[in-house]
Design goal:
Helix content: 25-40%
Radius of gyration: 21 Å
CATH architecture of the largest domain: 3-Layer(aba) Sandwich
CATH topology of the largest domain: Rossmann fold
CATH superfamily of the largest domain: Alpha/Beta hydrolase fold, catalytic domain
Number of helices: 16
Strand content: 15-25%
Order of helices and strands: HHHHEEEEEEEHEHHHEHHEHHEEHHEHEH
Largest sheet: 8 strands, mixed
Length: 442
């Protein structure tokens, strides 16, 4: 998805609200979502703690809310809520139905009952019931818990190991797209990274996947803000740690360790390969070759015109996103200390991405590349795939494949791809798993 760090936010009136006692964290969380739905931003901000009031004042909350409306359409109703506890915080997860997809609103309350964090991300409620893909034989592999990294940013992960193929096995690290993704890269009713792990392990390839830092340590970002976050801290450091750990893992062929990146993970895969030249190769699934802020504008235009020509209201919404795009492009190094969040990320994040050219970096790599693209992908499009092909023309260690019927998650479908499609349970296409496995075997 296009939003970073999960700071999606939502609109309109709630219906079918869960019946809860007035004093519970769930009641407080659902009432807060109602305030957002009614666009009572003053009332919403009044519940924030001091840090949140500084990071997300009333006008900024209003702007963020409007951005969400452009991405997923009007709010329709609350579907349910639950509470969990993390350290001294109560975390209320309110599942919300929007016009184009379901989102989980994560409202974080401190010990005083004030809101210390707010995150919106694709709902995971339906994905829990999703069964294994047809090409995965669950009796051919085993899974074990593993911790990626050390120190304060340790991440829980899962190592999937073949059991019917003798080792040492080739292995691959899976690197997620933008946002606070879990180890399965759960989106709506789908778990593409679980599909890849089980499918590749069935074919004799070990797979390591883990919770993304911005998901596992979301509370730290709540308490200290996004600060000087860059894609290095968000994604790259942990991918490098994971690859290094695999080299020290029994049963793994240390000379055949790959990195597979999807979406943002695919875009920065060449940067990971540059930092770790010992990697055996890189797989790029739906990696963008263009600036992220431009892709957000393109996605917004696509979604606003799904049901017909751009309306006057749509023009206004698109103009707002373009204004944010322009603000990103005007950032200079003097803005690096700014706490302002633009399109879901701080200035340091955008400045870091600006200094990175995926194609120029890829051209310098000695590792082989496999670049795959779904033909129905509206988030990273054929334009990006053609960009990889043009930019790496003549490089004999690069392979390309386009799958006309697949969407951004590499799941098959027909017609125009829409956000609602992610709510339909499916699996990564078997042909994608086969092609990746054959390429790694070569």
């Amino acid at each position: 998805m296009s939003a970073l760090i999960g700071t999606l936010l939502a609109p309109a009136l709630a219906e079918d609200k869960p019946k809860v006692e007035a004093s519970t964290p769930i009641a407080s969380g659902t009432r807060f979502v109602e305030k957002l739905a009614k666009e009572d931003f003053a009332g919403a901000v009044a519940q924030f703690d001091a840090t949140m009031k500084g990071a997300l004042p009333e006008q900024k909350l209003r702007e963020t809310w409007q951005t969400l409306k452009k991405q997923v359409g009007p709010f329709q109703r609350q579907l349910g809520a639950k509470v969990t506890h993390q350290d001294k915080y109560n975390v209320v997860l309110v599942t919300c139905q929007f016009e184009q997809m379901k989102l989980d609103a994560k409202v974080v309350f401190d010990s005083q009952g004030q809101i210390a964090g707010l995150f919106f991300s694709p709902s995971q409620a339906e994905a829990e019931a999703s069964g294994p893909p047809p090409y995965a034989r669950t009796n051919t592999f085993r899974e074990t818990a593993i911790t990626v990294g050390r120190g304060e940013w340790r991440l829980p992960g899962t190592l999937t190991l073949p059991t019917t193929v003798a080792g040492p096995w080739p292995a691959v690290v899976l690197v997620q797209g933008s946002g606070p993704n879990d180890r399965d890269e759960t989106v709506g009713a789908n778990k593409p990274f679980r599909d890849l792990a089980w499918g590749l392990a069935t074919k004799g390839i070990a797979v390591l996947r883990y919770e993304k830092r911005t998901k596992e340590h979301a509370m730290k970002f709540v308490s200290v803000g996004l600060g000087k976050l860059t894609v290095q801290e968000e994604t790259i450091d942990d991918a490098l740690s994971a690859a290094a750990q695999l080299r020290q893992t029994d049963g793994i062929d240390s000379k055949r360790i790959f990195v597979l990146g999807h979406s943002l993970g695919g875009s920065v895969a060449p940067r990971i390969g540059q930092a770790d030249p010992k990697l055996a190769g890189l797989v790029i699934l739906a990696g963008s070759t263009r600036p992220l802020e431009d892709s957000i504008v393109e996605q917004t235009r696509y979604l606003l015109t799904l049901k017909g020509p751009l309306s006057a209201e749509g023009e206004a919404k698109l103009a707002e996103i373009k204004a944010s795009d322009d603000k990103v492009k005007k950032l200079t190094t003097a803005d690096a200390s700014s706490s302002e969040v633009i399109l879901g990320a701080p200035a340091t994040y955008w400045l870091d991405l600006r200094s990175y050219d995926p194609l120029a970096t890829a051209r310098k790599l000695k590792q082989p590349l496999l670049i795959l693209q779904g033909g129905r992908d509206y988030q990273v499009t054929r334009t990006d795939f053609d960009g990889w092909k043009a930019g790496l023309e003549g490089h004999t260690n690069v392979s390309f494949k386009l799958y006309p019927d697949l969407n951004h998650l590499f799941i098959a479908g027909t017609g125009q791809s829409t956000p609602e499609e992610y709510e339909q349970a499916g699996h990564v296409a078997g042909s994608v798993v086969t092609d990746i496995a054959l390429w790694m075997r070569k």
